[in-house]
């Protein structure tokens, strides 16, 4: 039976005015039956309202409508507040699903001591019927499947960033008045076209089948990058396609869109070596020159900012305007209005081909024909013009985005007060509550239980009377759960900062010089790395290199005691240069042993001899790193396998002198380092029998990734760790 029954409502379908007129007629002497017939009411209904208003002279203050809200859990104002909260969360990108809404409703009812059904306590959430009625009473809410949006995209779309972009756009239009009519304004962006479709559509299938399949030619497919260019006048230029091949062949563009440019790259991605060809293609198709300039808007991908491409654009009157990263979903006309239908038509063309050619696989040589079909259907003038209008590019509209559009960035922006607290080092302990409140309703409820009313009476569980809060203050969803918000966290002492992208006009001389300087620095760094790599390969291939490494290993293993400290001497510049450039000569075994012994002492680290470890100097404490000697039984009862492990003490010793240790994993790449990630805990580790040494505090690297790699100020090369 359908939940929403068809037909008009049979009871309660009258208004207040008709009831008031009928009551007045009865008071003036008419019968109940006649007055009810005149106003479309039932006699029993009119009789009930006449009896209820017998002692009231002013009918305007009387309640003359059906009271179907008497069994509602929340009042109308409370439900409006909840609906507004759900809308705000959805705009911020943290929308709540049906289960979370039901849990929030239960928390609201319990916190405000309103009457609700007893089944809510059993499941700790509101019922399904309440949710259905809530949605019926608030048609402004609907169920939608959200699109995936990364945190970077949401956080980057701010009024400040968009003000910079529209300011650069206005400067470009002011320089060239011919851009104002939109006939010389273009947008460039890339889309991935693969041999496997990505859009899932519903199909007609028989009932009673649990799983329905759709044939496709592969699991992951092969990528071909398609670069599209559209104009603000509704036109579309021939695309550029990058095939995953070393060399481009003409037959890759069979049945392609007329004028398509074909390129090849091993990865199938656009790169800085190919983009100059794209810029020449754009200049040729638009007829751009210094007398007839054009404006090209694109993202600031490193491949798009190739110096050669910028020079070609500057020489041919192309003004390039870039946008800072993570905003193409709002400010790229191609992303806003074109690429979505393009994907649908592309997948439709692929499905038609698969249906007509069963058993055959889609290859990269078929993609050009699919792109041709999709461009003809998706890139219509109406669709293109709509994209430029929604982005505020043409017609120029810097106020196209409202405050509601910027709500997605609000959860990731700390307030000025929080920033000042972080800078002053006075962050309160509850500063992180705001972030957790956005994702965990239970945590926020537990915190509020300490702040609101510690001794609140248990709520009744019979929902048959008029609802309402038990106190004068009603705790809404904003007070119970809170809006998503990230607090300002103190920055670590050492962090690796990456250069943030920004909106700019790279064809301007200052920006162009800055790009050239960055490219020069990157080239020098790359050349230096290649030179070091070549020098290392030359040293490795030099005569005697393998013998020296072998002698070094043997000599180090013989060093069972800390090596003697050698006398420091000041080497001459000539000898130091020779030592850096030429391999050390190994004339005899004595020289090799001397060199190896000195090499083991270069860092000044004491060598740990596992056979000469004495008693512990002190008892291990929490946060100490210890070396453990573990004995494992073998097939021979008289022999035991002895291995060593390093662990971190996470609990102090108990009455039996046992501690709990978290094991560290030995690094595969660097034998002198140990990994802290995913440790295994071992309980009841005896201090006297297992722990043989307390290691010094480990050294931590600067980056977050390197902080998981621990190294100690001792030489553990002689310790036989288990691999």
From TrEMBL:
Residues 66-144 form the HTH CENPB-type domain. One of its GO terms (cellular component) is nucleus. Residues 595-604 have a biased composition (Acidic residues). Pfam families: DDE_1, HTH_Tnp_Tc5. Keywords: DNA-binding. GO terms for molecular function: DNA binding. The keyword DNA-binding applies. This is Pogo transposable element with KRAB domain. It comes from Frankliniella fusca.
């Amino acid at each position: 039976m359908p939940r929403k029954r068809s037909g008009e409502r049979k009871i309660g379908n009258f208004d207040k005015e008709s009831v008031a007129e009928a009551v007045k007629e009865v008071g003036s002497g008419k019968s109940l039956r006649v007055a009810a017939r005149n106003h479309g009411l039932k006699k029993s209904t009119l009789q009930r309202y006449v009896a209820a208003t017998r002692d009231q002279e002013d009918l305007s203050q009387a309640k003359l409508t059906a009271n179907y809200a008497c069994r509602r859990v929340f009042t109308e104002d409370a439900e409006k507040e909840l609906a507004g909260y759900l809308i705000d969360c959805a705009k911020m990108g943290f929308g709540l699903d049906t289960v979370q809404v039901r849990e929030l409703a239960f928390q609201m009812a319990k916190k405000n001591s309103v009457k609700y059904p007893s089944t809510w306590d059993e499941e700790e959430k509101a019922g399904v019927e309440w949710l259905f009625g809530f949605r019926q009473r608030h048609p402004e809410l609907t169920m939608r499947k959200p699109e995936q949006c990364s945190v970077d995209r949401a956080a980057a779309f701010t009024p400040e960033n968009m003000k910079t972009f529209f300011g650069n756009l206005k400067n470009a239009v002011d320089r060239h008045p011919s851009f104002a009519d939109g006939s010389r304004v273009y947008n460039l962006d890339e889309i991935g076209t693969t041999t496997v479709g990505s859009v899932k559509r519903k199909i007609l299938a028989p009932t009673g089948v649990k799983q329905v399949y759709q044939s496709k030619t592969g699991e992951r497919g092969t990528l071909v990058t398609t670069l599209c260019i559209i104009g603000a006048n509704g036109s579309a230029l021939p695309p550029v396609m990058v095939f995953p091949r070393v060399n481009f062949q003409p037959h890759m563009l069979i049945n392609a869109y007329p004028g398509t440019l074909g390129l090849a790259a091993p990865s199938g991605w656009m790169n800085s070596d190919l983009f100059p060809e794209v810029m020449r293609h754009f200049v040729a198709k638009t007829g751009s020159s210094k007398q007839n300039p054009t404006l090209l808007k694109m993202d600031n991908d490193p491949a798009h900012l190739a110096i050669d491409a910028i020079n070609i654009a500057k020489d041919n009157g192309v003004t390039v305007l870039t946008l800072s990263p993570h905003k193409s979903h709002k400010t790229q006309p191609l992303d806003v209005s074109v690429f979505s239908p393009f994907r649908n038509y592309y997948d439709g063309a692929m499905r038609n081909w698969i249906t007509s050619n069963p058993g055959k696989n889609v290859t990269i040589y078929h993609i050009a024909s699919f792109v041709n079909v999709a461009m003809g259907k998706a890139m219509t003038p109406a669709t293109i013009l709509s994209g430029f209008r929604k982005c505020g590019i043409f017609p120029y509209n810097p106020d196209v985005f409202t405050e509601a559009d910027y709500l997605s960035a609000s959860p990731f922006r700390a307030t000025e007060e929080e920033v000042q607290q972080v800078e002053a080092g006075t962050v309160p302990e509850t500063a992180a509550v705001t972030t957790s409140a956005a994702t965990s309703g239970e945590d926020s409820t537990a915190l509020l239980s300490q702040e609101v009313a510690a001794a609140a009476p248990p709520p009744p569980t019979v929902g048959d009377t008029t609802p309402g809060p038990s106190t004068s203050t009603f705790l809404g969803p904003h007070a119970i759960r809170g809006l998503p918000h990230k607090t300002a966290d103190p920055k670590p002492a050492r962090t690796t900062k990456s250069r943030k992208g920004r909106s700019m006009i790279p064809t301007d001389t200052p920006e162009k010089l800055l790009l050239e300087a960055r490219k020069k620095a990157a080239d020098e760094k790359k050349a230096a790395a290649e030179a070091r790599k070549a020098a290392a390969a030359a040293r490795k291939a030099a005569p005697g290199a393998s013998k020296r490494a072998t002698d070094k290993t043997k000599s180090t293993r013989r060093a069972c005691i800390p090596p003697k400290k050698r006398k420091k001497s000041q080497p001459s510049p000539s000898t130091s240069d020779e030592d850096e450039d030429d391999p050390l000569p190994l004339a005899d075994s004595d020289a090799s042993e001397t060199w190896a012994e000195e090499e083991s002492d270069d860092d000044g680290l004491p060598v740990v001899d596992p056979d000469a470890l004495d008693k512990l100097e002190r008892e291990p404490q929490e946060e100490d790193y210890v070396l453990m000697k573990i004995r494992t039984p073998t097939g021979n009862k008289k022999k035991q396998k002895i291995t060593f492990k390093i662990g971190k003490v996470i609990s102090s010793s108990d009455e039996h002198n046992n501690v709990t240790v978290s094991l560290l994993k030995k690094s595969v790449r660097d034998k002198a380092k140990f990994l802290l990630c995913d440790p295994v805990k071992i309980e009841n580790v005896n201090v006297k029998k297992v722990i043989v040494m307390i290691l010094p505090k480990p050294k931590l690297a600067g980056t977050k990734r390197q902080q998981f790699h621990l190294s100690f100020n001792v030489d553990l090369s002689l310790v036989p760790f288990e691999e």
